[in-house]
Specification:
The structure is a single chain. The chain is α/β, with parallel strands linked by helices. It folds into 3 domains: about 200 residues, FAD/NAD(P)-binding domain, CATH 3.50.50.60; about 110 residues, FAD/NAD(P)-binding domain (3-Layer(bba) Sandwich); about 100 residues, Enolase-like, domain 1 (2-Layer Sandwich). It has 14 helices and 22 strands. The protein is globular. Bound molecules: flavin-adenine dinucleotide. Flavin-adenine dinucleotide (FAD) binds next to helix 1, strand 2, helix 2, helix 3 and helix 9.
């Protein structure tokens, strides 16, 4: 029990990292509270991130299927009419139901929700709103927020961040997306499908930094085919807003003549930064690292005894499932168990059409470590994808040339986000490409392409 403290565990932040940590701590018999400054639980993910973006991606995908004539090819003749208010309504409804679900889970597991902003008074004492509480263990799970572009003001009307881009009251004529990462491509896809002309400006010479090189090139081709324009190797140096229009100044990243571009909506999506402002970390004896993150050890301990940190506020990919797994592990460590997250096997998914997913090493990173064998299988040769008229994409399996152990798997396919789970599980069990190749996969499924790519590692796929 908490003895001289109010709580055994106080979690700061109720995003996927924090709420999961709080629930698991309570399940393990620890007296637990969770401080959250938002009106609703669930953090970025449920309120303004994963869930509302997927609600808009799903709805806009169906609209696009109908509007583009692809449904007509299947013998379904429809002329869709966009009702954007209803589309936003179902997004809000999904958010309401899921955030309400976390409130229910807190009650069920007897987690106390402390409403308000938390700031440290010392390593075991935190002010939440007007109250002060003490805890034997404090877990910092304050997440991240949008990285601003210096000199560019987000007004959530003409210049928006991801939160504003989820809620646009009308379809823009020309949306310029600054940043060719996951969030920019997902939200750019939503508004392109609903009728906007979309231009994506990326500073690097290719989109989707961090993804496998082949995947980056191929997905760029697919998005171009869908109608998104790209300006790669280009820097946005100025955004001037006049009335309901913006003029962007673009410069080649490597130097050269500047040009201008007009837009009625500019989405700034250049990344996210850890939330530590106002936490008074210094009062707990903590500092952030050069990237503004809270440094931790393998067990999620900060340098201060009894203070732990997880999720977007610590180093690693800023992903909800990574935060959730860290939430479980930190609670188990606090309870004296052994909580572990294998940070080498965290899948990444882009929920566009088709989906783009990967786990483990890129081919480039794997080659830096040693000799590799690579097997690739195109979705065009997968019977299910072909039947469903989904020819774009491929699966790629990267294995160690000597041991055959799978080092990375990358997919572009309509259901790549679901397919990548089997690759993650196989890799977690230390699978070789042969293990995947000799595992029976149901027919006809997109997942058979994973098996065929694994067979291709030894040069023996059946269907190409
Ligand atoms: C548009 C968008 C789409 C995304 N899509 C995906 C996706 O499809 N899949 C995926 O895996 N990830 C996605 N992400 C990323 C994902 O949302 C984050 O990785 C995840 O939410 C991080 O979880 P967290 O618990 O660390 O922090 P957060 O979810 O950011 O939660 C932190 C919480 O702490 C609260 N807080 C902060 N400071 C304090 C304080 N001092 N006192 C009290 N409360 C405080 C905040 O209000 C917030 O609610 C997306 C993000 C965005 C923006």
């Amino acid at each position: 029990m908490a003895d001289k403290y109010d709580y055994d565990v106080l979690v700061i932040g109720a995003g996927p990292g924090g709420y999961v940590a709080a629930i698991r701590a309570a399940q393990l018999g620890l007296k637990t509270a969770c401080a959250e400054s938002r009106e609703t639980l669930g953090g970025t993910c449920l309120n303004v991130g994963c869930i509302p973006s997927k609600a808009m991606l799903h709805a806009s995908e169906l609209y696009d299927e109908a509007a583009s004539g692809r449904m007509a090819k299947l013998g379904i003749k429809v002329t869709p009419e966009l009702d954007l208010d209803t589309m936003h309504g179902q997004r809000k409804d999904a958010v309401k139901q899921l955030t309400g679900g976390i409130e229910y889970l807190f009650k069920k597991n007897k987690v106390t929700w402390l409403k308000g902003r938390a700031a440290f008074e010392d390593a075991h004492k935190v002010k939440v709103g007007d109250d002060t509480v003490t805890a034997k263990n404090i877990v910092i799970a304050t997440g991240s927020s949008v990285t601003p572009l210096p000199g560019v003001e987000i007004d959530q009307k003409v210049v928006v961040d991801s939160t504003g881009a989820l809620e646009l009251p009308k379809v823009p004529e020309h949306m310029v997306v600054i940043g060719g990462g996951v969030i920019g491509l997902e939200l750019g896809s939503v508004w392109r499908r609903l009728g906007a002309k979309v231009t994506c400006i990326e500073f690097l010479d290719q989109i989707l930094p961090g993804f496998d090189g082949d995947v980056r090139k191929e997905s760029n081709k697919i998005f171009k085919k869908q109608g998104i324009d790209f300006k790669l190797g280009t820097k946005v140096s100025k955004v001037a807003v006049k009335g309901d229009k913006a003029t962007l100044t673009l410069e080649p990243a490597k130097g050269g003549d500047a040009e201008t571009m007009e837009a009625d909506c500019v989405l700034v999506s250049i990344g996210r930064r850890p939330n530590t402002d106002g936490l008074a970390l210094d009062k707990a004896g903590l500092k952030t690292n050069q990237r503004g993150q809270i440094a931790i050890d393998h067990d999620f301990r900060t340098g201060v005894d009894g203070v732990w940190a997880i999720g977007d506020v610590v180093p690693g990919p800023m992903l909800a499932h990574k935060a959730e797994d860290e939430g479980i592990a930190v609670a188990e460590n606090i309870a004296g168990q052994t909580g572990i997250v294998n940070h080498d096997i965290i899948p990444s998914v882009v929920y566009t059409w088709p989906e783009i997913a990967g786990v483990g090493l890129t081919e480039e990173a794997a080659k830096e470590k040693g000799e590799v064998k690579v097997g690739k299988f195109p979705m065009m040769a997968n019977s299910r994808a072909k039947t469903n008229h989904e020819p774009d994409g491929f699966v790629k399996v990267i294995a160690d040339a000597k041991t055959d152990r799978v080092l990375g798997v990358w997919c572009i396919a309509s259901v790549a986000g679901t397919m990548i789970a089997q690759a993650a599980q196989a890799m977690e069990f230390g699978a070789t490409s042969e293990d995947i190749a000799y595992t029976c996969h149901a027919h006809p499924t997109h997942s058979e392409a994973v098996k065929e790519a694994a067979m291709a590692v030894t040069g023996k796929p059946i269907h190409i």
